[in-house]
């Protein structure tokens, strides 16, 4: 059940549930996994940027990953292994795969600038973790400040056969999907899976441009699952209607910094996790912010009953 | 009719209309001004980041500003004078005011980092242009990579009496509005006008947090005018209904790089300007992109007839 | 007397002399030009980063350039035309060439990241200013934060025949010179002139790696002229002895921010310009700083009499 | 023997010795420690930026630190604990102190911008590691891209009593030392130890401005020890003579990227470590580069016999 370039559907970017004292809330890890499984996710991604991974020490990180892998045994689990050095990256990647992960995800370090620096970085990373581990290339310029052209992504994919998926998170990125699918058609790049991020804010059109699904972290992964499915079934209006109904809230959740607080607040309200706590240093939602989210949920519930919480 | 800290309503960030050969389309400058006036804008901002200002030479820049000031004589016109050096900033600011501008807008240069550097920069800028010109402080970290805390904004406003308005474009920025309004209430900062940017993507809640209006560049400034008005009248549901109907398109237009192409494409479709041309080097909309915008307009037209173009 | 790829020797990066009130000190412009001519410089570069160019308005900029061109009529004058937009760049470049400049110098804008973005930027710049103007490519990552690999520089040089010179200012950059000269040898790049910057801090070895000379701004351009000449004559020990004697002061002058204050202070002491004034906003040398420079000059004067001022 | 604000002298920034296969060269760790002790260093700093720390996994990192602490038992050992997250930082800091470290060193993460963000970061870091660990504040804007004003440094020092030392590595930074010492004199900041970095390139004047010594990584720490001592003894000319003799090589070693290769090459030549190997991905010195270093050593040996290797 290792990750391949045929992967599709919705991979939920999982937050790490904490209790109010800052400990890992293992019960919520289980309930969250059960929820993702029930609503039809294809996979779960743990220890990503929104998973508060840097706040976990090495033992906690692998413990969380292992619990998710064990509990969500019907889903593919991708483990984020981005690290400032290759020794730590290798260590976490090997442990994750030993624990049963489907693959790992690697983001470039922020200091990379030139095309050659970027390509070289991923070659060295794969040399470090081993070429036997399927991995996801994370392209997220807004946060990582590394800009990869389609041509650079193609070089990485052609040079490194163990890369099976692109987590597409450029912004804007619709043309990038079209260009990469064009590379596949003209034979200059082997086919890969493309799942899209950015909180799902462009999922409606990303699917129409050729994405295979979503890998992102909205508090309603069930909406993502539905939009991906409706889009694949060719039910364009239905996909857009559902998407548009959620857009006001999805936009609100996509605010940098406070976004994770919104997500955990809604997930706790929905009963997916027990607490909306973040381990320190964390962002928090003001009273005004909570009232705004409640208002958005109430408006959403008119069109999507799942928001009536 | 100089700008004061009582300014409110919608200030349209005006694009610069070009003809397909790259010349300034002076006829469209007039029709655009007429449109902004008719739909109820309070002001127009020219030579901003989205106005392709760096592609104009010094003579063209002042010519465009002067034409807008003359034609839109019922509106307040703000002229962007951000420049890498103070000599050019002073020169444009004085000329703009002589031509009848209501005020000028100044953004920080990207290299500023520390609080003191930021405050010092604006002191030097005002020393250069003169303390008699009302000016707008532009706070736009996403594009300018300069981060001003509420405390730094307060220092600037307290130190420089000619600052009358904040163009609020932090992202996320709802708490920033609340904090600044709190400074006014506790007496630590004099009252200023706050108009919000970011393509209007958070205008619904920005108004509720205390903004005086919008200063941004969506292709439907009439929607911005309406949302600002509805919000001030306390018609919350109506404001959100109209806002939500536009959000899918507003979100699409807010894509960096390609956003201006979308805006001009829609404005040309609406007959506000004659061409969607950008002076080189410009972004352009692919066939797929145009089809997506058309689709969004068709969906929007169901709820807002003004989109039936 | 237009710039070609045969250019060599020392091109002095000229500061702009101001009087204490902030006006351009035209008398010092002349005396400075005379000095550069007398000590054997091959050229002068005006309106560069260290020339306080952004503090000049458009009319002043061309006036300074024209005066230097006229006075230093035995030297080649390169005019810096870097600008945030192509309209201003074209305007200044055409005026400079009309006034008799030998060529222009263009730096990339700081926002460029990918290889393609960089190459495209220079193509657009040359399309804007015209392909008939010989120009210098400025490679200065430390200040401009744009990283050009040797491969990218080669693409620019091969695509744009009017590029005749590289102002080499990468840091470290010795291997870059060797790589570029290697490209010339293997026939993959046409020959260009390479002059080096960075305040001359590596001039000793840059010459040995194949540089044609220096284009930088040390307060002793006569030392640069001598080191370039000694190195070309194969007098290695003499070149290094002279260079090493100046290194403590050259290092001191190379401090970012305060460096220009040091340079003008020493140039004024040497009688090259009348005042060490900078136009606001400028850096200044503290009393401790001036004493340190005086001490360094006194130590240097033991080995090089020209420092006895 | 914990670190206090009375610390002075030279703390050597230690590289991590590797064998050609990439394993840690434990024998060289010992010989290096012995060398630092013999030449009169006051302390050793391990796991810093130039110590290839990110290439070590967690177990290796603490093993290297422990070996240095044990072997160099007459010196104070500072352990770099900078990390992307506080969990890893705490874990390493506690282990290092348990192993006998004198203190730890913390650098800000590169994303910090505003004064408040910087101060808050260090408060959270100390909350994480515990306020009982003496620590060194690393101020290194050139590499870390975080700019701390003297005022921000003062806030950190006043708020966090366990901060006992500033590793001063701003560039330029002479005025910063003077300003901070001024804060101490006017009573607005408690006294701290200031050791300077930047490869020692300004050590001559840094001592005269009030630094307590050097914490940096030149291949001749014995020179640093001597310059610090001579300067404290008031032998100004002798200090500068020795410093100036080394400056051509020190400047060469200070090149970013290739600097560590130069340092290890010279240290291996001097017999301080057995190999100049770096763990992958590492920089390397070309044949031309090695010849240049050899030439610089030969020239230096005329004035300082220790360079005759």
UniProtKB/TrEMBL annotation, chains A, B, C, D:
User: Which SUPFAM superfamilies does the UniProt entry name for this protein?
Assistant: Aldolase (SSF51569)
Q: Where are the transmembrane segments?
A: none
UniProt keyword terms in alphabetical order:
Lyase
What's a single GO MF annotation on this record?
4-hydroxy-tetrahydrodipicolinate synthase activity
Question: Can you tell me which residues bind pyruvate?
Answer: 215
- Which domain of life does this protein belong to? Bacteria
Q: Which Pfam families match?
A: DHDPS
A cellular component term from Gene Ontology for this protein is: cytosol
Give the family, as the similarity comment puts it.
Belongs to the DapA family.
| Protein name per the record | Dihydrodipicolinate synthase family protein
Q: What organism does the UniProt record list as the source?
A: Agaricicola taiwanensis
């Amino acid at each position: 059940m290792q990750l391949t370039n045929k992967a599709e559907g919705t991979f939920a970017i999982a937050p790490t549930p904490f209790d109010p004292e800052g400990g890992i809330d293992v019960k919520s890890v289980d309930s969250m996994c059960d929820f993702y499984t029930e609503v039809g996710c294809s996979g779960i991604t743990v220890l990503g940027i929104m998973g508060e991974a840097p706040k976990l020490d090495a033992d906690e990180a692998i413990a969380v990953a292992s619990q998710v892998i064990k509990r969500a045994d019907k889903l593919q689990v991708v483990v984020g292994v981005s690290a400032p050095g290759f020794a730590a990256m290798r260590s976490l990647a090997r442990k994750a795969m030993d624990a049963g992960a489907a693959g790992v995800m690697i983001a470039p370090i922020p200091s990379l600038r030139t095309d050659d620096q970027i390509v070289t970085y991923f070659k060295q990373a794969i040399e470090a973790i081993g070429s036997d581990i399927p991995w996801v290339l994370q392209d997220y310029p807004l946060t990582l400040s590394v800009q990869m052209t389609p041509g650079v992504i193609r070089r990485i994919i052609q040079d490194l056969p163990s890369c099976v998926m692109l987590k597409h998170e450029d912004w804007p990125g619709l043309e990038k999907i079209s260009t990469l699918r064009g590379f596949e058609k003209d034979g200059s790049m082997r086919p890969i899976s493309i799942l899209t991020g950015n909180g799902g804010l462009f999922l409606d059109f990303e699917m129409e441009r050729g994405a295979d699904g979503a890998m992102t972290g909205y508090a309603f992964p069930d909406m993502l699952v539905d939009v991906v499915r409706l889009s694949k079934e060719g039910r364009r209006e239905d996909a857009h209607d559902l998407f548009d109904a959620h857009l006001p809230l999805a936009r609100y959740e996509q605010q940098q910094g406070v976004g994770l607080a919104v997500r955990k607040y809604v997930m706790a309200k929905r009963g997916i996790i027990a607490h909306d706590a973040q381990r320190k240093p964390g962002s928090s939602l003001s009273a005004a912010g909570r009232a705004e989210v409640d208002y958005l949920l109430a408006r959403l519930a008119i069109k999507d009953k799942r928001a009536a919480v």
